């Protein structure tokens, strides 16, 4: 079954809405941007949500000591890195790493870049390249680039996903998980109805795949 992460949560209310919608993982952004939250606030949110929900911190080129301190202080389960962090940096993190690679186009040597990170990263997240942005742009990349590469690692698909296109994205790329943020927002605020619709679309796609096998 494809796992679901809802990212960019900024309040207890939005975190609980994601959990109640059926998300397997929730994400909190510690990098600069409108979804940024403080470690104190995230720690409080995480303490309020039930067990067996994977908590993820999103970072962009953070100081390694700061990264590890926040991971332990907030009791994060996974660290998601969206910057230019090196493979060596990933190996020194105190929590499992998901490394984000941004898709530039067909000429992008994705396999070569993935192979550099595979020893230190638990999974690879594929997102859309947008100049000056590290994620959460709501823009999709051509999914056929992933399908044609026959990637042999745990892939998390992100970038422009929403309830209307996530099933098609899953069928084309067969990812381990999908990651959504802006696709479940209304006017920049997390929308519980859109979260529920997104989770439902992923689950229904899984059921449809089982009948096709």
Question: What does this molecule look like?
Answer:
By secondary structure, this protein is of the alpha/beta class. It has one domain (3-210): Aldolase class I (TIM Barrel), CATH 3.20.20. It has eight helices and ten strands. The protein has helices at residues 12-21, 39-48, 64-74, 87-91, 110-117, 144-149, 166-173, 192-212; strands at 3-6, 25-29, 54-59, 78-81, 97-103, 123-128, 155-157, 177-180, 185-186, 189-190. The strands form two sheets. The protein has an eight-stranded parallel barrel with strand order 1-2-3-4-5-6-7-8, surrounded by four helices. Helix 1 (12-21) runs parallel beside helix 8 (192-212) and helix 7 runs parallel beside helix 8 (192-212). The radius of gyration is 16 Å and the shape is globular. The two termini are 14 Å apart. The mean pLDDT is 89.
Descriptive tags:
TIM Barrel, two-stranded antiparallel ribbon, EC 5.3.1.24, 213 residues, TrpF_fam, 8 helices, alpha/beta, 8-stranded parallel barrel, globular, isomerase, 20% strand, N-(5'-phosphoribosyl)anthranilate isomerase
């Amino acid at each position: 079954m494809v796992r679901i992460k809802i990212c960019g949560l900024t309040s207890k209310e939005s975190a609980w809405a994601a959990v109640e919608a059926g998300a397997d993982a929730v994400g909190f952004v510690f990098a600069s941007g409108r979804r940024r939250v403080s470690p104190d606030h995230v720690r409080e949110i995480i303490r309020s949500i039930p067990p067996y929900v994977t908590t993820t911190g999103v970072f962009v080129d953070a100081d390694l000591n700061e990264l590890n301190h926040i991971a332990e202080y907030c009791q994060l389960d996974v660290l998601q890195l969206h910057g230019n962090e090196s493979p060596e940096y990933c190996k020194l993190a105190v929590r499992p790493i998901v490394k984000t690679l941004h898709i530039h186009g067909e000429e992008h040597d994705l396999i070569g870049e993935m192979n550099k990170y595979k020893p230190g990263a638990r999974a690879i997240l594929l997102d859309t390249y947008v100049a000056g942005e590290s994620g959460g742009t709501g823009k999709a990349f051509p999914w056929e680039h992933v399908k044609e590469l026959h990637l042999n690692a745990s892939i998390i698909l992100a970038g422009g996903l929403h309830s209307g296109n996530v099933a098609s994205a899953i069928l084309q790329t067969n990812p381990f998980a999908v990651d959504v943020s802006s696709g479940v927002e209304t006017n920049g605020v997390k929308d519980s109805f859109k979260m529920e619709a997104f989770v439902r679309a992923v689950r229904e796609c899984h059921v449809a795949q089982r009948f096709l096998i």
